[in-house]
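re: ur question from earlier - yeah i can do the single chain one, its not a big deal. heres the input i used so u can compare w yours
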Amino acid sequence: MFDIGFSELMVIGIVALLVIGPERLPKVARTLGHLLGRAQRYVNDVKTDINREMQLDELKKLQAQVADSARSLEDSVRKEYDSVRTTFESPVQEAVADLEANARKIEQDVAAVVTPAPATAAPAAQDKDGGKV
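and the output i got, formated as tokens:
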């Protein structure tokens, strides 16, 4: 921050000793030390806050990028799923329709064969002894 060497500090100390005096110089130096410490803490706090805000901004940008890539991945997977579904769905539907048509035809053929023609009354069955059952 300031480029002050040891010799310059010595000159400032001697001038302060002459101007302020030997009795008040320790109090003034202690007060200046406290004020300088507070100023340094304040500067460090501001730096920390600025760095935290910058990191938050970077994290928000990263989050937005991840969300965008997740959306694009989801869209591509959905498109692939729909294309595969349509590829397999139409032949399966045709096969199901063919099977249902064949099942109906077989049911009709079986019904035609199984259904007997109207017959006259059949004689009652008899058991061995000649009695009617």
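Residues 25-114 form the longest helix (90 residues). not sure if urs matches, ping me
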